[in-house]
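Here's what a typical entry looks like (Multidrug resistance protein 1):
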Amino acid sequence: TPGTVFTVFFSVMSGAFSVGNALPYMNAVTTAMGVARNLYGVIDRVPEIDASSKSGKKPKDITGKIEVKNVEFSYPSRPTIKVLNGLNLTIEPGQTVALVGSSGAGKSTIIGLLLRFYDPEAGQIYLDSNKLSDLNVHWLRDQIGLVSQEPILFGVSISDNIRYGREDVTDEELVEAASQAMAHDFIKELPNGYNTFVGDRGCQLSGGQKQRIAIARALVRNPKILLLDEATSALDSQSEGIVQKALDRVMKGRTTIIVAHRLSTIKNADVIHAMKVFS
């Protein structure tokens, strides 16, 4: 019928007009599809060290003894530059060991290897005679508390930031961790106490306050091993003194590795290892 012909005609015209309008954007669509393919390839990739894996040993109890035997390592982005070459190191349970040396000597690299962000190219690292590579990654990281130079706080409350260290922590355990980190006194003086919003990256708090919250977050899991990677280097002298006092308290009874440059940070270490850039 004429009505049907009319309808078909305008449908075809409308479709052609739409296709014509879309043609200038086809290059952008093709580019976007390629980018999306690469993006989802990264998202779906299973890492060699999979923290979500259920495999690996989970010892019931550990003392915290660490042994590094003939370890060699180069970063994947710089495979020709040897950061560690035949490193041997033994840390007894409860011992505090300081690693000192120039930048690039591999001090923070040891921290990354202990947390299994990477695996050594050669040699082995042991925790209580267990190869780190044989242990469940998530379990291993639960045994370790890390306090780094720049504490990462999220834009939530102080309480929630501490709970990120262990989600099932009770209120009593949370306050105990904050007290050990010498954070409880300043927190309770805030108008909203532990419910105080810290702002983006903790912008509402001072450097010393942020660091003490980071220490509390590391302590809520009651770790056997404590890693302090330049934990006070970004603080002024007054804040450093407060934070260092808190660290001295929490290091007792824990195997502790300190990466630092300042003498005040390492003066109480049981052993000091000097490292140099491998050439």
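Residues 2-22 form the longest helix (21 residues).

More examples are in the samples folder.
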